[in-house]
Amino acid sequence: MIYKDYKRVLYIDLSKEKIRIDLREDLQEYLGGVGIASKLLEENIKPDLEPLHEDQPIIFAIGACSSIFPVITKTVAMFYSPLTRDLGESYAGGRMAITLLFAGYDAVVITGKCRRPSYITIKSNDVEFKDARPIWGLSTSDTGRIIRERESGEGKRSILRIGPAGENLSSFACVCVDTYRHFGRLGLGACMGSKNLKSIVSIGDKSIDIENNKEYFKAYQTIYKKVTNTDIMGKYHDLGTSVNVLTMNEKGSLLTRNLKDNRFEHAEEISGEKFAEKNLIRKVACTSCPVGCIHIGQYRKQFDDGYDYEAISVAYDYELIFALGSYIGVGTTEDLIELIEKVEQLGFDAISAGVVLGWATEAYSNGLITNNETMLPLEFGNVENYIKALEYMGMNYNEFYKTLAKGCLTASKVYGGEEYAVQFAGNETPGYHTGYGSAVGHTVGSRHSHLCNGGYSIDQSTTEFDKEKLIEYIFNEERERCILNSLVICLFARKVYDRETILLALNSIGYNLTNDDLDHISDSIYKTKLRIKKMLDFDITKVKLPKRLFETDTSKGPIDEKTTYELISSYNEKLKEYMS
Amino acid sequence: MAKVLRADGMNKCIGCYSCMLSCSAVNYKSHSLEKSRIMVKTSGGIRGRFTATVCVACKDERACEEACPSGALEKRVGGGVLLNKDKCIGCGKCVSACIVGAVFFDTESQKPIICKHCGVCPNFCPHECLRMEEVEDDI
């Protein structure tokens, strides 16, 4: 807790409907967020049991100074990923962090399984277990609406919920947070579904006295000004991450039609600029972020002749545009909005959903799967059929869709086409095909995501390819992000929170840390994550990358398979040395 | 000239709550959403618009002041009231008297939370949803 010498951890046993609170002084050395979540996962994970076994834990943690400084908005979730069967680590914005802070918890550990579909409410003075049978099967939006109408704490609460995808245990089911944010990747939705847990409501209903208001508020103002009066956050405030669409396309890094191409002829039609011009209606923010990067796009759809319209509004971002757009040949903002809405309601990770559809479309065109499996033709750009396919996948309609809902690696092992199932250690590719940095970064990153180490960034910012420098960059960034994620800042603000600013924030609220301390903390965290991966028998040198990565040019031209594996091997050597 | 807070740009609100956090920090030395003198919330979830409940700075007759049995609320120049905590007995009659809902109640101190139009929150609003307006002195 802020101003305390311990972390306050709430343990919830869903089977027994009991809670326990531990005051953990020993967790202080992990700072917060991903640090304490890693430690709690290490303590509670059961490597011998299946990822969706009821005894597996779900950990949520907020950061060391969550919500009381600008853009420190995220909550981290850690779990045993059903998608990769490896460390699961996912982040969501919205209001969860501030509500947990004001409910009085640094972390929540959830184990067991509700005896019937249920939801839980977490307040500072109570944790309640409630019947969710009538809402089991409902979309994420209907679930949110019903719970919103039933629960207290308006404006000071966060509502997490899963959709049918999570209930039906899709390995890439997401958890929707406060309508527009998500624990997107690696299947936390399935973890909740396996526990019969439809929703978690956290209500931030208490306050925390500030110990040194002068120092704190000075630091707050400094950081607020840095966020709002400089250009650092400009990209996110203006067009948002969707500004990347045209840039990536121009460079030849925009994954298109299951990565058969690296440029999309309709990129302009689905660009951030086009969205802004045609569909953008407003921007919203996570709590305590003055940037407001959440871009809401609306599509006015005619549903009957005359003047009959319905309005669909969704949050859009670069990753959604690539996955549900260029990756499956969808070239208009309207079609994209419809697909995003469907994915959202069902509760899938949008990136994985698009990428598995990309794989399935190619497998269909190659005859590996037919109408017998898919029930309808899967063709690049055929939005109507993709929407039906998503519904089939959400409901485990048949054996094929049930398998597809386990991810493209699993599906390709059953139906073939592994060479073009574009995933890294089981996690569907993010939207960067920039060079060795992205390929290696995604593979060695502790959660196999561009959010681990931004390998794509070094591809974009360097002209010469230097193996040692690349490995060094990825390694250092992986470590540094342990600190950023122990705070848990929004990574869009990583240039705001340099070491000096991190120390300014932390020390103004009573920490007494130095730069060396931060180095030490980041090592403790990274090593904990690596120990968990080892416990789960994960070995980066055994990751098999799809051939497609080496067949389609990146922005740097082709990347060589052998060199890529050599780089992964070098990284592994570095890790061995690091851990010895 | 006195100044009063106006929340008439709420269509531009992104829901960052910086106004509430800064209000609590400055006025109550507290990290809090509960102790803010302005309350932002959504109408119908985040898909709905954001609204701000804020003291409208009543002039002439102030219902909260009239309802106060102990004389703890005094008319503020320009509109609204000022709370004298030492005179307040924590009865909460001012809370129910304000039909705007802008008199909040601090369950910890058992005193009302009432905006004194200090001007902190507009300084931390990134979109000018909030502003200070100069008004005639009325008393």
From TrEMBL, chain A:
Domain Aldehyde ferredoxin oxidoreductase N-terminal: 6-206
Species name: Anaeromicrobium sediminis
Family the UniProt entry places it in: Belongs to the AOR/FOR family.
Keyword Iron-sulfur: yes
InterPro entries linked to this entry: Ald_Fedxn_OxRdtase_dom2, Ald_Fedxn_OxRdtase_dom3, Ald_Fedxn_OxRdtase_N, Ald_Fedxn_OxRdtase_N_sf, OxRdtase_Ald_Fedxn_C, Tungsten_al_ferr_oxy-like_C, W-dependent_AOR
Protein name: Aldehyde:ferredoxin oxidoreductase
Source lineage: Bacteria, Bacillati, Bacillota, Clostridia, Peptostreptococcales
Superkingdom of the organism of origin: Bacteria
Keywords: 4Fe-4S, Iron, Iron-sulfur, Metal-binding, Oxidoreductase
Cofactor(s) listed in the protein's UniProt record: tungstopterin; [4Fe-4S] cluster
Signal peptide: none
